[in-house]
């Protein structure tokens, strides 16, 4: 579980940094398209997990892991855009996200 949370954390913050840089350079359409692609992947993983049978994405736990890992970059994109407009608010959202991940890790131990 800790390794999955680390992967979620890395995906979120790498996409947040990329979104912040892209938004500040004026590539707003690219960030919005990336957010749309991430939303599509979340929907695809959710759909596949609801129809899956057998050994891949069959259980509720696996579905939640797949959706969370797909949603990580989306959350990062949103935090990056918020930080591009207001750095203090963006840092506040980042700290809130980090606290949620820490509580999830503490709960899983």
Strand count, sense and closure of the main sheet? none
Distance N to C terminus: 9 Å
Strand percentage: under 5%
Low-confidence stretches: none
| Helical proportion, percent range | over 70%
Q: How many separate helices?
A: 4
Structural class by sheet pairing and helices: mainly alpha
**What is the ordering of alpha helices and beta strands?**
HHHH
Task: Report the count of strand segments.
Answer: 0
Q: What would the keywords be for this entry?
A:
4 helices, 87% helix, 109 residues, single chain, flat, mainly alpha
What does it look like?
The protein has four helices and no strands. The protein is mostly helical and 109 residues long. It is flat. The chain has helices spanning 2-24, 28-51, 60-85, 87-108. The termini are close together.
Itemize the secondary structure elements and their pairings.
Blueprint: H1 2-24, H2 28-51, H3 60-85, H4 87-108
Report a brief summary of the structure.
This protein is 87% helix and 0% strand. The chain is mainly alpha-helical.
